[in-house]
Amino acid sequence: MNIKFKEIVINTKRRREIVNITEEIQKFVNESKINNGICLVYSTHATSAIIINENESGLLEDIIRKINEDYPIEKGWLHNRIDDNADAHLASTFIGPSVTIPIKDGKLCLGTWQDIFFLELDGPRIGRKIIIEVLGV
Amino acid sequence: MNIKFKEIVINTKRRREIVNITEEIQKFVNESKINNGICLVYSTHATSAIIINENESGLLEDIIRKINEDYPIEKGWLHNRIDDNADAHLASTFIGPSVTIPIKDGKLCLGTWQDIFFLELDGPRIGRKIIIEVLGV
Amino acid sequence: MNIKFKEIVINTKRRREIVNITEEIQKFVNESKINNGICLVYSTHATSAIIINENESGLLEDIIRKINEDYPIEKGWLHNRIDDNADAHLASTFIGPSVTIPIKDGKLCLGTWQDIFFLELDGPRIGRKIIIEVLGV
């Protein structure tokens, strides 16, 4: 069995932002020479998330709108007594920091309408770190 | 280490529908002869999800009711300029396309009240594909 | 490849409660002598979840407040015809029973502000079982 790691570093420009990382991940799967296994994509931040869905600009705006509606910035959050980003922590908690995708015959088993995205919830930020781990044979 | 894949194909009949796939997954775990490892259940669609909870008919209806309330079909979603299923994409994005379950002594480590379900969010559809991957020894 | 399992047993005291399990998990990763791989943390209950976020007391209260708002106890849930905890099942369904974290150089790849928590949604309960599985080399 082989295990390979890669760290992707992302700089974001807006408070909420969706960054497509599919190509970088598939490229690393290719480089890993691992043909069958799993790919774990893990964000090391408590105010971000990793999501999978369709790469359509309207939908990506809908996702951000939905997050803004479900996690309002001002709602008397207790965490905001010491910081100003409780909304981002809450969204990150419930959306989750990672996804796991099967790798078969050297390819990520993504469906036709599935891309992998880093979801910035409290940008702009420099140096967001995402770990890609490929494990298999 | 061994890795085994199986594809489950599901046809759905309603817009929102919950399909119990636990038995098929456990059967494949048995066939794989892998005694200890993980089972990754991954849906290849951007308008579906995989969930784990209790197989009780009232609860399954509650789950669908909750999705309908949280992801209304008409709410001026931008994705609906080019399609009519933004609600399904949004629910899929936030619920997630996969689950990972430990396998120990040849069995999925599901609790007494845990079953695994395919969640159709934009049916009816023919040929929904779910990948089951068993990895271990 | 090696695979090691450990079961954590937790007793909770309140209906909603957040229990930090990070230290026990890292300790088990150390004991496993597995340096590179993955750590799957899986709750075997349909009225609980596993989450990752910052260990800040205000935020942990915000998380519980948000769950109470999003999953009200009384809302005519059908599951409550046979039980009284539909809200807990629904939260568990959508938040999810597990997390997977990369292990690199013997350490969980958690970010500075990431801890791992058991989320009780229907306590108080005796004997909540969480499976920690470490898989790797």
UniProtKB/TrEMBL annotation, chains A, B, C:
PROSITE patterns in alphabetical order: UPF0047
A Pfam family annotated for this chain is: YjbQ
Q: Which organism is it from?
A: Thermoproteota archaeon
Q: Which family does it belong to?
A: Belongs to the UPF0047 family.
Coiled-coil regions listed in the entry: none
Superkingdom is Archaea
InterPro entries documented for this protein: UPF0047_YjbQ-like, YjbQ-like_sf
Q: How is this protein named in the record?
A: YjbQ family protein
